[in-house]
Design a protein that fits this description.
alpha/beta; Rossmann fold; Methionyl-tRNA Fmet Formyltransferase, Chain A, domain 2; seven-stranded mixed beta sheet; 8 helices; 17 strands; elongated
Length: about 325
């Protein structure tokens, strides 16, 4: 990997860096709040750009994104463009005269004219150790891959997705029981701290850009609900990682007696041997055990459609499920 010269700022000590923040989900909202708490001589957040309000929950009531809600509570200017490739949005962005565009899980690829608005540079807080797990689902990707560590990367945004030079990276271990939700909480705080370090280095003209090693790049795509359907022919270890990677959304799921069953918690069985067909319930002792393509999975907590989460053993007793019944048919 090659390193470039530090980015410079001619007026590093005169005024705070003007920042336009672009983000959408709770992870980004946490980072925004940490930026706002750190405003002063170093930086000032002048506006927020986020996705338009979306229908949420069963009532489909239009609600703002987590970033929009955080920005509104602080009295910030909020832009919610339906389209970002318009002269109107570009003009509004230019009028803010940002030194930095700071992007964290905004949810859209930014065109070159938008990136060029930043006087110093556009930077991104990416929730993986680049170049591993580029793309839309790095947290889920790290858990699904069985990675032992992940982290955050602060990078300068270029026209290629998540391929820009690295400004700063921080790593943390992935716990054996880590879920998407718990890991995103940790990475939100790690990303906020790393971002503030990087901004301080940019302000001092000390930031060093390091090119990514393209030979090590891996990619993730947006997670869809259909990805969460369990294939019991897979290894038990993979299905257990699915359960954790898709918690709290979209939740790993299967079918039982033709009805949807969501799996909230699961564990690997100590005895993984067996000749039963994948998806077969082979034990109903302290908790139901399901045969997989390789190994067996203990179901710990499940939820039927329209019902509450509950211990899997209680669910099986309530439905009078017998050993030998199969899931996923």
């Amino acid at each position: 990997m090659s390193s470039g010269p530090p980015a410079s700022r001619s007026d590093a000590t005169s005024t705070p860096l003007r920042i336009v923040f672009m983000g959408t989900p709770p992870l980004a909202a946490h980072i925004l709040n940490r930026l706002l708490d750190s405003q002063g001589a170093l930086l000032r957040v002048v506006a927020v750009v986020t996705q338009p309000d979306q229908p949420r929950d069963r009532g489909l009531r239009m609600e703002p994104s987590a970033v929009a809600a955080a920005a509104a509570s602080r009295g910030l200017m909020i832009l919610k463009p339906e389209k970002i490739r318009t002269p109107e949005f570009l003009a509004a962005l230019k009028a803010l005269a940002p030194d930095l565009l700071v992007v964290a899980a905004y949810g859209r690829i930014l065109p070159d004219p938008v990136l060029a608005v930043a006087r110093l540079m556009p930077i991104n807080v990416h929730a993986s150790l680049l170049p591993r797990h580029r793309g839309a689902s790095p947290v889920e990707g790290a858990i699904l891959a069985g990675d032992r560590e992940t982290g955050v990367t602060i990078m300068r945004i270029t026209s290629r997705m998540d391929a820009g030079p690295i400004l700063l990276a921080r790593a943390i271990p992935i716990a054996s029981d880590e879920t998407q939700g718990s890991l995103k909480t940790k990475l939100a705080e790690l990303g906020a701290a790393a971002l503030l370090d990087a901004i301080a280095q940019i302000a001092r003209g000390e930031i060093v850009e390091t090119a990514q090693d393209e030979a090590l790049a891996t990619y993730t795509r947006p997670i869809e609900k259909r990805d969460s359907m369990i294939d019991w022919k897979a290894d038990a270890s993979h299905i257990e990682r699915m359960v954790r990677a898709y918690d709290p959304w979209p939740i790993a799921r299967t079918t039982m007696r033709g009805e949807l069953l969501m799996i909230h918690r699961a564990a690997l069985a100590q005895d993984g041997a067996g000749a039963a067909e994948p998806g077969t319930i082979v034990d109903l002792g302290r908790a139901p055990i399901v045969q997989c393509g390789r190994g067996r999975l203990v179901l710990v907590e499940v939820q039927a459609a329209g019902r509450k989460r509950m211990p899997a053993a209680d669910f099986m007793r309530g439905r009078r499920i017998a050993i030998g019944e199969r899931l996923g048919i």
